[in-house]
Design goal:
148 residues, mainly alpha, 75% helix, globular
Length: 148
């Protein structure tokens, strides 16, 4: 699964991970396309959200540019959360993606937070639906803090 491979490639921190994340930025449009083409496939949605989360993670100018590029994925992320409310893995990865997109300071970060603010009820719903999922609870709390 291509989204899963991109999720793994973009994992981690440090100089090597940053280089890998920069190398996969061109894969963002195909990730968005996969999410839109396979809305009922929870595995595609989960891995796509994970890839978006990992690509957007980081600090500095390159990470800010990646976060800006990932903003276009907000509608597919919202759709994934709505389509798979019972899937804790989709919800966790989507909350993680929202968290990293909304991370940062400055005008661009504030604009991303405003663009993602519609996700607040989705994050709350995910946390309520999956009280026993440590991942949903953790990433949901992070997302709520970043979106406030």
């Amino acid at each position: 699964m291509a989204c899963g491979a991109l999720c793994n490639i973009a994992k981690g921190a440090g100089a090597q991970a940053e280089a890998r994340k920069q190398a996969v930025v061109d894969a963002l449009p195909p990730i968005f396309a996969a999410m839109l083409a396979h809305p009922a496939d929870a595995d595609v949605q989960k891995m796509a959200c994970g890839a978006l989360c990992n690509i957007a993670k980081g600090a500095g100018a390159q990470a800010e540019a990646r976060k800006q590029a990932v903003v276009d994925a907000l509608p597919p992320i919202f759709a994934a959360m709505l389509a798979h409310p019972a899937d804790a893995d989709v919800q966790k990865m989507a909350c993680g993606a929202l968290c990293t997109i909304a991370d940062g300071a400055g005008a661009q970060a504030e604009a991303r937070k405003q663009a993602a603010v519609d996700a607040l009820p989705l994050v709350v719903a995910a946390m309520r639906a999956h009280p026993a999922s440590a991942g949903v609870q953790q990433w949901g709390q992070y997302a709520l803090r970043r979106l406030e």
